[in-house]
Amino acid sequence: MASQNTTTAHLEGLDQAPSNSSLSQPSAPEPFAFAMLLKPEYVSVIVSALAIIWLGAHGSLRRPPSAAAAKPKNGKKQPKEEKFQEGLAASDAILFPIVAAILLMSLYYLIEWLQDPTILSKIMRGYMSLMAVISLARLSGDALDILTSLIFPTTWADRSGKVYHIDPDRRCQYLVDAATGEEVIVPSKITPLPGFLSSRVLSTSSRQLLWGIRHLYTEEWTVRFAMHGFFFFKFNIKLNDILGFLVSLPVAIAYHYTGWNLFSNVLSTAMCYASFLMLSPTSIGIGTLVLWGLFVYDVVMVFYTPYMITVAQKLDAPIKLVFEGPSGSSMLGLGDIVVPGMLMGIALRFDLFQFYKKQIKLETVELATELIDDSTGRTVTTTQAQHRRVKSPYVDTRGQWGNRFWSTKVGSLVPVKEATEASAATAFPKPYFYASIAGYTAGMVVTLTMLLVFRHGQPALLYLVPGVTGAIWLTALIRGEIKDVWGYTEDGSIDTEDVIVDVDGSGRVVEKKEGEKLDGEGEEQLREGEVAKKDKKQEKEGDYDVFLFSITAPRFALKVD
């Protein structure tokens, strides 16, 4: 992945300024450089980069190893957990810079050979537009999910702090009794709407329509596409995913034919977002190594070769963010967002890991052991008290932002204490992520300052990598969690089931027993294998589909009030 940097396109505007303009002075004092950072194009660069990283990091949240898989409700099938398509290993710290350099040099010499970058720009624009359609569809679908959750949340709280739960199967709203845990249906609230709208008196047909719309937008559809002997695809989607794809098509077409910066920025944002969802280092340590490898690459390509700046200026493709200002334009390559953003994303997931780790409980269990008495030959049963580690079920973040909005009182930033799902999914403590945000912001400010002072394109990773990595590891040092940060990994090795553990006198775990299993992953693969064997057996014994394409929607049963 070639890292593009803050370009010198703005410097061209400076060179064209009148000679009496302070912008054209080659030795601008540093205080003036800081004042220039308030220009709209520079503020747009920083704010846009932070917004993309925030969205991508939260979109990349997965079940952490310290949480148990969520149990399906109402007899529904256990959803398959989403995995990263590419997990970076330690060797990628060397491989990434080499591959990025080869790609960048290839683009440079291809531009020089063609003499006219317009041809290459059209080819790249068409290819990147096609790739951006899928990315923008995912971004649009997730954005529509947030909008849907704001209209049809699953929980909400009133002014007194009571948390109401919306049940689409029974078409009612209920409270949970704190003492007994029983569900108490509220007769006056029979609509799927939250807040003051929940008590509105509506006709039967209007209520049916609202419940139907909610069902249409929140339930998953199953898509099957197969050709006998060649391939078989099966995946779940929501209506919002389809609508997101329909939104992405006209945007990509409009960019392909117009080349406007607005469309380019939208597609670039979507590709950054998709990168966060597909690509991640398997640990914070590996992420740090990869960043420092690309740090060296970025410095060499900007300061010691003409490759980076030439390609960034001449190639017109959605691989950068461009912001126009009164005196010129400012540009930031996608690599300067995605590369540090990968580490910031795993920092956020580590925060979630720590949140669920603190909720792990130790339950006392009696273990029975049968032994044969050598003297009598009889079987003797002995019992021993042990402790079992029990993890809290994971709460999926998708669809929880509406719950957080409706469960947060006016003037507060966090949901009420009783809204446990919204808190677990969105409002958990994020010290490492916020520290990385601060480090990234500081790195961007220094990058733009150096750009203004030296009037030369700057390798943004020169300042972003120390800022982000330094902020994360300094936070770990201050919190005394260096060992925890270094030991955290997403390769599955610490994703274990609830097991029997030994505890000391203070109740802390001191040793793990042998025989731990991966948390549900091995069993899931075994079940999938058994299902596949069963399907093959049925296929041999009976009819089979030569060609199949189907979209199956969950049935919505009409209820007569």
TrEMBL record:
Q: Which GO terms describe its biological process?
A: membrane protein proteolysis; signal peptide processing
**Alphabetical list of InterPro entries matching this protein:** Peptidase_A22B_SPP, Preselin/SPP
Q: Which residues cross the membrane?
A: 42-61, 93-111, 237-256, 286-309, 329-348, 432-454, 460-478
Coarse class of the protein's main subcellular location? endoplasmic reticulum
Its record classes its membrane topology as:
Multi-pass membrane protein
Region Disordered: list its residue ranges.
1-25, 62-83, 513-538
| UniProt protein name | Signal peptide peptidase-domain-containing protein
Organism per entry: Cladorrhinum samala
Q: What is the lineage of its organism?
A: Eukaryota, Fungi, Dikarya, Ascomycota, Pezizomycotina
Give the GO molecular function terms: aspartic endopeptidase activity, intramembrane cleaving
